[in-house]
Amino acid sequence: MPGVTPLELAAWTWKMPRRGRGFWFSLAIDVLWPVVVVFVRLRVRGRQHVPGTGGVILAFNHLSNSDTVAAVVFALMSNRVPRILAKASLWRMPVFGRVMRSGGHIPVERGTVKAADALKPAVEALRAGECVMVFPEGTFTDDPGNWPMKGKSGVARMALESRVPVVPVAEWGTQDLLPRGTVLPRLWPRKRVEVVAGAPVDLSDLYDRELTAAVLDEATSRVMDAITTMLTGIRSEQAGSRKV
């Protein structure tokens, strides 16, 4: 299964959208991109499912701290500059704080009553035609097999209030690149990372419904089921290739 060659990935440096990235977020991308080029065997599929303009939610599974890097690479290769929903503690860190503020990302006070406050700026960004990147599980999966957990309702609220497409995206291999509990990535031998998007999740029948717990749960389940389906495809292909 061929991936993106280092030469092809390097060429994306000049193709990626830059407008709206902000100085520090743009600098972080420019610093990390060569690392991805040299040390990651990247395979990206499904970019055609990401609309080129207008609001869109990219919903990813969550395996590792390196998920965000792979997800940003996917968004940029899809010609979109993402706004990331991330834990608010990053904004209080000297370097990360500058990057997050510069990129116009959206802090989430996880585990507090203020967690829902992130939804308003996220919906505003979506209605303004932006791409918002979210990990619906809210944290790394605790499933022993690294399958997605039940998602939080935030992705459903954003989608139903903004009525923008929700594109399910599965990542696999990031858990080998930067295993949970480690600080430094394992760059050698080169790690294989796959990012695969599927068609937008159909939530249109829920748009005019009251946002009850049942409706939010249904929308969330559809998104997580779609992500799980994409991940199943990746893992089945890899298992099959090992048997050949």
Automatic annotation (TrEMBL):
Segments forming domain Phospholipid/glycerol acyltransferase: 56-174
Keywords assigned by UniProt, alphabetized: Acyltransferase, Membrane, Transferase, Transmembrane, Transmembrane helix
Signal peptide extent: none
MF (Gene Ontology): 1-acylglycerol-3-phosphate O-acyltransferase activity
SUPFAM superfamilies (UniProt xref): Glycerol-3-phosphate (1)-acyltransferase
Pfam families per record: Acyltransferase
One annotated Gene Ontology cellular component of this protein: plasma membrane
Transmembrane segments: 22-40
Family matches, as InterPro entries: Plipid/glycerol_acylTrfase
GO biological process: phosphatidic acid biosynthetic process
Keyword Acyltransferase on entry: yes
Name of the protein in question: Glycerol acyltransferase
Organism name: Lentzea guizhouensis
